[in-house]
Amino acid sequence: MNPDAAQSLALQALTWILSTDDLAGVFMGSTGTSADDMRAQATDPAYLGSVLDFLLMDDAWITGFCDGAGFDYMDPMRARQLLPGGDLPNWT
């Protein structure tokens, strides 16, 4: 995993989130982002890190995404660590 691969995985995660009807609304509601905001920020590594933060909140989301995209279940966390803010400790 490298930063480019991390950004690619996060962009795929965003696409998966938005293609999952019930999850798209949860994402947009919890982040306060609009469709226009998402399009504008889709290449911003910090924004993509926040996408992975959201995905990593629920094991079912991780497994759903990874199973559909062919990733190892640990790949979203590995990718998150390479994006801005990913090196911060998780105290939960």
Structure, explained:
The protein is mainly alpha-helical and 92 residues long. It has one domain (3-82). The protein has helices spanning 3-19, 21-31, 35-41, 45-55, 59-69, 75-82. Helix 4 packs antiparallel against helix 6. The chain is globular, with a radius of gyration of 12 Å.
Helix content: over 70%
Weakly predicted, low-confidence segments: none
State mean pLDDT (0 to 100 scale): 89
Could you tell me the number of beta strands?
A: 0
Q: Tell me about the biggest sheet?
A: none
The SSE order reads HHHHHH
**Rg, nearest Å:** 12 Å
Described by its quaternary structure, the protein is: single chain
Please report which band the strand proportion falls in: under 5%, 5-15%, 15-25%, 25-35%, 35-45% or over 45%: under 5%
For the record, the count of structural domains works out to 1
Q: What's the tally of helices? A: 6
**For the terminal residues, how far apart are their CA atoms?**
24 Å
Shape: globular
Helix/sheet category: mainly alpha
